[in-house]
Amino acid sequence: MSAPAIGTTKTAHSDVAPKKKRGPGALATAYLVIYNVVMTAGWLVIAVGLVRAYLVRGSYHGLYFSIEKPLKFFQTGALLEVIQYISSNVMIMLCSPAPGIVPSSVVLTGFQVLSRVFLTWAVTHSVREVQSEDSVLLFVSAWTITEIIRYSFYTFSLLNHLPYLIKWARYTFFLVLYPMGVTGELLTIYAALPYVQKTGLYSVTLPNKYNFSFDYYTFLILTMVSYIPLFPQLYFHMMRQRKKVLAHVEEYKTE
Amino acid sequence: FKHGICTVEILDAKTKDKLCFLDKVEPNATIGEIKSMFHKSHPQWYAARQSIRLDPKGKSLKDEDVLQHLPVGTTATFYFRDLGAQISWVTVFLTEYGGPLLLYLMFYFRVPFIYAPKYDFTTSKHWVVHLACMCHSFHYLKRLLETLFVHRFSHGTMPLRNIFKNCTYYWGFAAWMAYYINHPLYTPPIRYYINHPLYTPPPIYGEQQVRIALIIFLFCQVGNFSIHIALRNLRPPGSKTRKIPYPTKNPFTWIFLLVSCPNYTYELGSWFGFTLMTQCLPVAFFTAVGFIQMTVWAKGKHRSYLKEFRDYPPLRSPILPFVL
Asked: Which residues from chain B sit within 8 angstroms of residue A207, using beta carbons?
């Protein structure tokens, strides 16, 4: 899903000042700054690629193909974040992006990254016919804007120079981008359904030696259904975060 | 040295509110008795859901602890935490084991709406399917009977939400496995004589595989039962004492020399046998998940044995001899 939900639960007051002495080590900070800068740059490349392709073609259709490779690369690269958050649990804050921005849970993080990677590879890449759908552009745009803001948020936080604008954007843009992304994702999965059913993609039928079966078509439908309980939870979680973070700003606004 | 009468006050561990004040408490009263008295003034908190501690963040006191042996003055201050709705272990076990027993049989007898209508109430033509049904049913019947007559539980209750979690696990997996094993298109273990792609093997089952699997299964069932009996005999009726288990005259218990929780070892063996017998991937998954869960439990139990007993035998591993 496209929720910019990772690593935000405990942000609140410590975002700007005062900084706690126990921060991540210098090496860990350097790694994380580089990681977040690279990711910001990557998604900017995707954004620029989309705009350029639109200007050249003069239409919204088929823009996916112009950014297919960097999209796959940078979205998959986000799997590194899951490893980062696991190690931060192990090394107690050593790898956290900044004091106060402690990832709320590996489960939430991992879940979002995995769902994005699933949509990139197991749906869009695997079912060629949906790649020219407009719904793909919908979620790619939502992800692009979200990620640019999110990674620059992390970058600036690590460098302890977070412009209020970025923080505000991070906790406000999701209000539109999240539903936009979810709509794009659901429409794309829905568009993929007939092709999956026709070709039996990723499906295993009986009889076979190991007495197992898997119907990818049904699996995709169940995935779509799972958005119903999950989307509102994540959305309202972000809204609660927004209240907490932006409410404290009056006290701590220094940038 | 205390004699005479004590008073007890119970505060909420989170809010520190005074919840209850008991005067005229005997010094030799147990925590269990205090819980009953607390329950009278707060009927919604029955004894099983009370956690009484000396310290708001400390460990729960045991029901057997006696008031005058605790580090309190003549006025004892305890902290209370609500453990939430509780359900007895026996109820949970009966429900979570009864489900798989019945569900599997429903698939075995091909009750309508599971498979295509033309198969309703038919039976499989493969004898290994009948064997698997007997083994699966035997296993869960054994568990139900052990719950009623063998096990001695150290806790009476567990949180209510556990029953939903546990039943989903057991019932879900049972249905998933049973669906494939009793499916009209089920493929039993087949022994291939020749690996040539154009060779069609005769419809002879991998009898050897099934036979070995059955032996493993039965061996482990007997072993598992022996361990349960041995553990039961460690603990006199009604008591909650803990002792180190040792091998007895029963050869199936000699595994105690190498393993702390051989009941889990045998359980793993049983399901491994069942996987081999049915050659069914969902069964393999169930075995794998169970193995992970039992390893976690075994490691925990092993650790608490080591903590509690200085003279704990060093050769023992938690669940797999020498390995895990």
From this structure: 185-187
pLDDT, position B201: 55
Cβ-proximal residues to A10 (8 Å cutoff; 6+ apart), any chain: A100, A101, A102, A104
Question: In this predicted model, what pLDDT tens digit does every residue of B295-317 receive, in sequence order?
Answer: 999 999 999 899 988 889 888 99
Give contacts of A 78-137 with B, CB under 8 A: none
Chain mean pLDDT for chain A? 82
Average pLDDT of the residues in A157-181: 92
Interface of A with B in 159-198 (CB under 8 A): none
Chain B contact present for A209, CB below 8 A:
yes
Is A178 a known active-site residue? yes
Q: Of the residues A185, A216, A217, A235, which is catalytic?
A: A185
Among B280, B272, B268, which residue's Cα sits nearest to residue B324?
Answer: B268
State both tokens at B210.
Answer: 């099934």
Q: Tens digits of per-residue pLDDT, A227-240?
A: 998 888 888 888 88
Residue B115 CA to residue B108 CA, distance in Å, equals: 11
| Mean of pLDDT over chain B | 89
Tokens of B320: 């797999």
Pairwise CA distance, residues A184 & A176, whole Å: 12
Contacts of A209 in chain B (CB under 8 A): 187, 190, 279
Kindly report the backbone phi and psi dihedral angles of residue A68, in degrees, each rounded to the nearest multiple of 5, phi listed first. -55, -50
Could you please report the per-residue DSSP string of B42-60? STTS-GGGEEEESSTTSPP
- Rounded distance between C-alpha atoms, residue A99 and residue A101, angstroms: 6
Dist. CA B104–CA B182, nearest whole Å = 9
Q: Tell me, yes or no, if A59 comes closer than 8 A to chain B by beta carbon.
A: no
Cα–Cα nearest to A97, from A162, A44, A41: A162
Give the pair of three-digit tokens for residue B302: 């092993």
Active-site residue, A235 included = no
Q: Which of A222-226, B74-78, B301-305 has the lowest mean pLDDT?
A: B74-78
